[in-house]
């Protein structure tokens, strides 16, 4: 047998390279959906923490002002005077409700909710530039004090019980990933665990 007739291999064949590339492509195809799920889960967790922090700020507001924020006029928002005089409808999508709620918690905790906070986003409300508390999907956070719940016994509002959640405090919720206000239910993220 002639040893010199055998060629020595010094590289990979084209087939071997294609097989490795196919395996890598399959693995990446499996990995990308998982990354999307993890990213969405992270957004939900961040928004839940933001709502918990906003709830703490509202409790601090209550201890300083002997009640939960309900007034529409807020005079100091991070050093800027803001007067929202329109009457809110107390639905989650009411821009005045969102604006003064954001202003109220910014007046209590300017580090977490002040003008420089990443949790706040500047938006137009009836021609005024206001900073609103936003969730991980850049949708404004909703607030409703317990005295303004849209609830009566036998109501068709989907509260899921005979009494609204948090009947003696307040409701804070995010519209969640679909950006649709479901009054704190479905995929919304809220402070009452529903």
Structure characteristics:
two-stranded antiparallel ribbon, three-stranded antiparallel sheet, 7 strands, about 190 residues, 3 helices, Glycoprotein, Type 4 Pilin, about 15% strand, about 35% helix, alpha+beta
Give a description of the structure:
This protein is of the alpha+beta class. The chain has a domain at about 45-150 and about 165-190: Glycoprotein, Type 4 Pilin (2-Layer Sandwich). Helices cover about 35% and strands about 15% of the residues. It has helices at about 15-65, 95-110, 110-115; strands spanning about 75, 80-85, 120-125, 130-135, 140-145, 170-175, 190. It has a 3-stranded antiparallel β-sheet with strand order 5-6-7. The longest helix has about 50 residues, at about 15-65.
């Amino acid at each position: 047998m002639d040893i010199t007739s055998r060629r020595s291999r010094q590289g990979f064949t084209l087939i071997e390279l294609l097989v490795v590339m196919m395996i890598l492509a399959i693995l990446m195809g499996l990995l990308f959906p998982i990354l999307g799920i993890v990213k969405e889960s992270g957004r939900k967790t961040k928004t839940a923490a933001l709502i918990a922090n906003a709830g703490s700020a509202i409790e601090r507001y209550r201890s300083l002002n002997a009640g939960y924020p309900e007034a529409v006029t807020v005079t100091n928002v991070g050093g800027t005077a803001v007067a929202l005089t329109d009457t809110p409808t107390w639905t989650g999508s009411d821009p005045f409700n969102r604006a003064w709620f954001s202003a109220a918690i910014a007046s209590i905790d300017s580090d977490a909710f002040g003008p420089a906070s990443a949790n706040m986003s500047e938006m137009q409300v009836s021609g005024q530039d206001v900073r609103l508390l936003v969730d991980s999907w850049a949708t404004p956070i909703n607030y409703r004090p317990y005295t303004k719940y849209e609830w009566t016994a036998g109501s068709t509002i989907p509260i899921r019980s005979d009494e609204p959640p948090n009947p003696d405090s307040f409701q804070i919720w995010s519209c969640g990933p679909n950006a649709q206000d479901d009054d704190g239910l479905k995929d919304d993220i809220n402070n009452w665990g529903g």
